[in-house]
Amino acid sequence: MDGNGRWAAARGLPRSAGHRAGAEAVRRTLRAAVEAGVEVLTLYAFSSENWRRSEEEVSDLKGLMLYYIERELDELASEGVRLRLIGDPSPFGPKLVAKLERAVAQTAANDRLTLVVALNYGSRAEFATAARRLAEQAVSGTLDPAEIDEQRIDGLMQTAGLPPLDLLIRTSGEVRLSNFLLWQSAYAELLFVETLWPDFGGDELKSALAEFARRQRRFGGR
Ligand code: FPP
């Protein structure tokens, strides 16, 4: 969800206004995804590198997430959205963590769309944790290193149990993955669009899905 800052700067507004507009884009895009029958939507809300931002901006984003959950949770739940988290939200403090956990529990039985929010998430840290777990199991004698295969690693990723990633969209013209779902995107279709995140919504999602439908996926075959 890139481009909030530039959207705000272009209007002479503070970055926080860009993030607020970004949260509205989340609302629109999520509704459109539910309507389009998307099974899983993962949003990169905060990367493990985003701590380099000013304290004020981090605190604005935290406040926005709290506000968003308070305002949207009931509606999300009634629309059949299940919330799931990847990353480690603990540095955001117990208040947000408790709210997120309650939201995850409240929506656990829903099955129309799974909304995965990546918060303080980084793909390389996810790999490192998986590697540590495997090493611990090997050292304790519960795992023979010869048994380590892709499936086992996949099961240790925070996305375990979710379907394979089909389409990865990055907004705002940046052409990088920035430590997002690196393992999971091995065969994903990548789509880089110029639209700044606050301008994203149903129409943009529909054209992204149409572009995805035009791609020929060969998974290494011919
Ligand atoms: C990147 O734009 C955006 C973020 C770091 C924050 C995204 C968060 C939200 C949209 C808040 C709401 C989220 C949820 C799940 C309710 P940027 O600030 O890097 O933009 P720039 O590259 O133009 O500076």
Bound molecule kinds, no repeats: farnesyl diphosphate
Distance between the termini: 33 Å
User: How many domains make up the coordinates?
Assistant: 1
What is Rg?
18 Å
Mean pLDDT: 96
Question: Structural class of the secondary structure composition?
Answer: alpha/beta
**Main CATH class:** Alpha Beta
Number of strands: 5
Q: Low-confidence stretches at least 5 residues in length (pLDDT < 50)?
A: none
Named CATH architecture: 3-Layer(aba) Sandwich
Which helices and strands appear, and what pairs or packs with what?
Blueprint: H1 4-9, H2 15-36, E1 40-47, H3 55-78, E2 81-87, H4 94-106, E3 113-121, H5 123-139, H6 150-156, E4 167-170, E5 189-192, H7 202-214
Parallel strand pairs: 1-3, 2-3, 4-5
Helix pairs in contact: 2-3, 2-7, 3-4
Structure description:
The protein contains seven helices and five strands. The protein has a single domain, classed as Undecaprenyl pyrophosphate synthetase, CATH 3.40.1180.10. 26% of the residues are buried. Helix 2 packs parallel to helix 3 (55-78), helix 2 (15-36) crosses helix 7 (202-214) and helix 3 runs parallel beside helix 4. Helix content is 46%, strand content 14%. The strands form two sheets. The protein has a three-stranded parallel sheet, with helices on both faces. It has a two-stranded parallel ribbon with strand order 4-5. The model has no long low-confidence stretch (mean pLDDT 96). Strand 2 (81-87), helix 4 (94-106) and strand 3 form a beta-alpha-beta unit. The protein is of the alpha/beta class and 222 residues long. The site of farnesyl diphosphate has 19 residues, from helix 1, helix 2, strand 1 and helix 3.
